[in-house]
Design goal:
Layout lengths: L15 H7 L10 H12 L20 H17 L4 H20 L40
Helix pairs in contact: 3-4
Protein name: DUF4913 domain-containing protein
Organism: Brevibacterium pityocampae
Pfam families: DUF4913
Length: 145
């Protein structure tokens, strides 16, 4: 084989100090998930919520760990992709926000136990039960080493 694609000189890797010096520190636009949800997501993403057979949203979304994890992932994605401008935001909506919100708002999704017609928006909740789990019968079945 030919060495036509071999570099003429060894490539030096950048040190951590050089990388830090050339890239400015990332500063998020919103300081918390709650702020992003309240100030960006809710004003910009609307669905009809009267018919619970189509969509469900609980104003106390922060009580649901699955919803918090999904929204944190969306917020982090939005913070990075907003810096890319138009194409980044289009990609964010198409590949991240719309599919994730379909899961979050699905009547069988994380809010399935919440019924806005029967629950005080600011009151206590009957939280959904976690999925059942049985202990492993084979020790170390999923070890990585």
């Amino acid at each position: 084989m030919s060495d036509d694609f071999a570099p003429a000189e060894p490539i030096e890797e950048a040190t951590e100090e050089e990388i830090t010096e050339t890239e400015p520190a990332f500063e998020p636009f919103y300081s918390s998930l709650d702020q992003w949800v309240t100030d960006w997501l809710l004003p910009n993403y609307s669905r009809p919520l009267r018919d619970v057979s189509q969509f469900r949203w609980d104003p106390q979304w922060w009580r649901y760990s699955e919803v918090v994890m999904r929204l944190e992932a969306l917020w982090a994605s939005w913070e990075k992709m907003r810096l890319e401008g138009g194409p980044g935001i289009v990609t964010f909506f198409r590949d991240y926000l719309d599919p994730m919100m379909r899961v979050i708002l699905d009547p069988q999704g994380p809010f399935h136990a919440y019924d806005p017609n029967k629950t005080d928006p600011d009151g206590e909740r009957d939280m959904p039960e976690p999925l059942p789990h049985s202990p492993l019968t084979v020790p170390d079945l999923f070890r990585l080493d």
